[in-house]
Amino acid sequence: MRKIRWILLLLSLLLLFAAGCSGGKQAQSPGLEERPAFSVETSCGALSFPEEWKEFVSVSETAKAYGTSLSFTAENGEDVVTLFTLNIGGGEGEEVGTLRGSDGTERSVHMVIDELMLEGADEDTANRLFAMQEDVNYIIEHLG
Fold it and tell me: 3-class secondary structure for the chain?
């Protein structure tokens, strides 16, 4: 089950890149409803993440020589798992777009995402964590 979700996540990311993700606002696919989101404020600009995950996700920002690194984490029982990391202004990972800050400066956004290790997670928790990780696509679609 986990391998299927991981494969689906990778396929969705590949499709996003194959569609010519330029980092700008993407046209919304027909039939998709806009989901409520909350703003993740950073020193480099604001990102949007689905509101349904607000109480479950934690975002920590670390200043780096190239810009900033944002780590999106969530709890799995006693453990904290990293869902994905976004490096803004450079750093490691695949470039997925750009983010314009309030000062008008555009910075590249790089994504690092690894397979979730969910030892001991019940099915509901595992499903929630996988869904939260897949919603990195929501952030990418709303860069601009």
Answer: CHHHHHHHHHHHHHHHHHCCCCCCCCCCCCCCCCCCEEEEEECCEEEEEEHHHCCCEEEEEEECCCCEEEEEEEEECCEEEEEEEEEECCCCCEEEEEEECCCCCEEEEEEECCCCCCCCCCHHHHHHHHHHHHCHHHHHHCCC
91-117 tens-digit pLDDT: 999 999 999 988 899 999 999 999 998
**C-alpha span between 24 and 33 (Å, rounded):** 19
Average pLDDT, the chain: 83
Phi, psi of 32 (to 5 degrees): -90, 130
Spatial contact of 111 and 6, defined as CB atoms under 8 Å apart:
no
Mean pLDDT of the region 88-92: 93
Predicted TM-score (pTM) of this structure: 0.76
